Amino acid sequence: MNTRPLFSLTCHAIFLLFLSLSISKFSLATTLSNETDKLALLEFKSHIDSPLNVLASWNDSFHFCHWVGVTCGNKHQRVIGLDLKNSKLVGTISPHIGNLSFLRSLNLASNSFHGGIPSEVGYLTRLGNLNLSHNPKLGGEIPVNLSHCSNLQYLDLQYNDLVQGIPSELGFLSKLQILNLRNNHLSGRFPPSLGNLSSLQNLSFLYNNLEGEIPNTVAQMKSLKSIVVSENHLSGLMEKIIAELGEGEEVEASINHH
Ligand SMILES: *[C@@H]1O[C@H](CO)[C@@H](O)[C@H](O)[C@H]1NC(C)=O
Ligand SMILES: *[C@@H]1O[C@H](CO)[C@@H](O)[C@H](O)[C@H]1NC(C)=O
Ligand SMILES: *[C@@H]1O[C@H](CO)[C@@H](O)[C@H](O)[C@H]1NC(C)=O
Ligand SMILES: *[C@@H]1O[C@H](CO)[C@@H](O)[C@H](O)[C@H]1NC(C)=O
Ligand SMILES: *[C@@H]1O[C@H](CO)[C@@H](O)[C@H](O)[C@H]1NC(C)=O
Ligand SMILES: *[C@@H]1O[C@H](CO)[C@@H](O)[C@H](O)[C@H]1NC(C)=O
Ligand SMILES: *[C@@H]1O[C@H](CO)[C@@H](O)[C@H](O)[C@H]1NC(C)=O
């Protein structure tokens, strides 16, 4: 007899249940994401000494979007920029940096970071600018997973202590405009896959221990303005490649003459 009201009551309850579930799911998602950014920043801080107390503002008195060096996007209050260049910071780069999933620019240049570049940086798919240059004790290998940063435009690792080979997977970085690896201790070959970097304008491998031939694929780099590979042990018909590439345009090239 009274199945109808019961039925509608049940429907109503199910609807309310569904509504409250989706609300709590939504707020859980937003809270989790910005709390993850805060946690990642605090973990990053915990691996660093700052004689100048540059990170003093990184405390609970301020929202992390107001911490020194941190830039947030207006819409989601997520970290999009971390700029702590030239701050006399000493320490290692925490793998938690890879949890700043909205990060577009990371600049830690001209400090005293040591250890390596964490491969978790590869989780930062929005990253356009990575500048870790001028950290003379920043060593280890260039992580292969850096090739997952598909939006990377500027990669500046000059004047570090990087060793081993240049990962051929860097050839996947189709938006890369600047690749500066000068003054490291990189060895092995010049990967032919780098010819796939069709947006690349400036490439410098100056002062490393690269060997073998400069690959012909260099001629495929349509946007190249400057290529500097001298002070290595490279050989090859660079002049010919540049002539083919430039077709009258000016490409600055510097090669070995010994
Ligand atoms: C995270 O976002 C939620 C919802 O927008 C907000 O209430 C909370 O204060 C934020 N927490 C932090 C640490 O930003
Ligand atoms: C947080 O940082 C500010 C600015 O450096 C400082 O004045 C304040 O005392 C700090 N608060 C705590 C709880 O450490
Ligand atoms: C963040 O990164 C670290 C190290 O990569 C990981 O252990 C942790 O589970 C990640 N997630 C959160 C939510 O902090
Ligand atoms: C590196 O990339 C591989 C896939 O190529 C993935 O399985 C691995 O989890 C990544 N590791 C880190 C630490 O990013
Ligand atoms: C990286 O930082 C160094 C030191 O501040 C600066 O000279 C260089 O121009 C930066 N690289 C890029 C690609 O912006
Ligand atoms: C990149 O270059 C290599 C060698 O030049 C080539 O074999 C490969 O197919 C290219 N990959 C992509 C994704 O373009
Ligand atoms: C790139 O190369 C051009 C041509 O040599 C030069 O004028 C420019 O300053 C370089 N840019 C960077 C960021 O190194």
What do you see in this structure?
There is one protein chain. The protein is of the alpha/beta class and 258 residues long. The protein folds into two domains: 143 residues, Alpha-Beta Horseshoe (Leucine-rich repeat, LRR (right-handed beta-alpha superhelix)); 94 residues, Leucine-rich repeat, LRR (right-handed beta-alpha superhelix) (Alpha-Beta Horseshoe). It has two helices and 17 strands. The protein has a nine-stranded mixed beta sheet with strand order 2-3-5-7-9-11-13-15-17, covered by helices on one side. Strand 2 and strand 3 form a beta hairpin. The N terminus is likely disordered. The structure holds 2-acetamido-2-deoxy-beta-D-glucopyranose (NAG) (7 copies). One 2-acetamido-2-deoxy-beta-D-glucopyranose (NAG) binds next to loops. The site of one 2-acetamido-2-deoxy-beta-D-glucopyranose has 5 residues, from loops.
Q: How many beta-strand elements? A: 17
CATH level-1 class of the largest domain: Alpha Beta
Strand content: 15-25%
On the 0 to 100 scale, the average pLDDT is 87
Secondary-structure element string = HEEEEEEEEEEEEEEEEHE
Shape: elongated
**Major sheet details:** 9 strands, mixed
Major beta sheet, strand line-up: 2-3-5-7-9-11-13-15-17
Helix content: 10-25%
Please tell me the CATH architecture of the largest domain by its name.
Answer: Alpha-Beta Horseshoe
CATH-defined topology of the largest domain: Leucine-rich repeat, LRR (right-handed beta-alpha superhelix)
Give me the Rg, rounded. 24 Å
- DSSP helical segment count: 2
Q: Poorly predicted ranges (pLDDT <50, ≥5 residues)? A: 1-29
CATH superfamily of the largest domain: Ribonuclease Inhibitor
Domains, number:
2
Could you say which small molecules are bound to this protein? Answer: 2-acetamido-2-deoxy-beta-D-glucopyranose
Structural class: alpha/beta
